[in-house]
Design a protein that fits this description.
The longest helix has 21 residues. It is built from two helices and no strands. It is elongated. By secondary structure, it is mainly α. It has a domain of 26 residues.
């Protein structure tokens, strides 16, 4: 088995008030808001030649 050592950065974030937002908005609105946020995060990370392995969460 070949192995490789790399330096990486891992980013974790939490959206304050997410549960309350999902309780008062339609699912389509929540999806739109989250898509906008993910798009902005992606653009910033790619601007530094980074990449996103995956978004995970509830």
């Amino acid at each position: 088995m070949n192995s490789e050592r790399k330096h990486v950065t891992v980013m974790f974030s939490d959206m304050s008030g997410y549960t309350a937002m999902t309780e008062r908005l339609d699912p389509e609105e929540v999806k739109g808001i989250m898509s906008d946020i993910f798009g902005k995060i992606t653009a910033i990370i790619k601007g530094y030649d980074g990449f996103i392995e995956r978004f995970i969460g509830d």
